[in-house]
Write a structure and sequence with these properties.
The chain is an alpha+beta fold. The relative contact order is 0.17. The protein starts with a strand and ends in a 9-residue tail after the last helix. β1 and β2 form a beta hairpin. The protein is elongated and about 70 Å long. The chain contains four helices and five strands; from the N terminus they run ββααβββαα.
Length: about 110
Amino acid sequence: MTGRVLIEICYALPDRQTLVPIEVESGTTIRQAIERSGIIATHPDIDLTTLAVGVFGKIATLDTVVSPGDRVEIYRALIVDPKLARQRRVEKTRTTSVEGRRWVAKERRR
């Protein structure tokens, strides 16, 4: 089957998001679509050998063939371990909310 498909390439930084709509040939892989989109020129920090990619939030390989309407996402490395971030949120809740204070020993409450 030959033809063209319309997809989007997405890369997000903490302060901005880049979304590039692109039309590619049927049978194009994620790697080819990213390279053709020009997003690497806009964001030279993108390194496809180390960063994960996915389609609509599901991890995919660079060899995955894109489908019409796909949003190809390029994921950045995590800055904080998710378990550590959750632990910090729980500690904050325990010390600042009335509900959370029930879990803190009375001698530690202020």
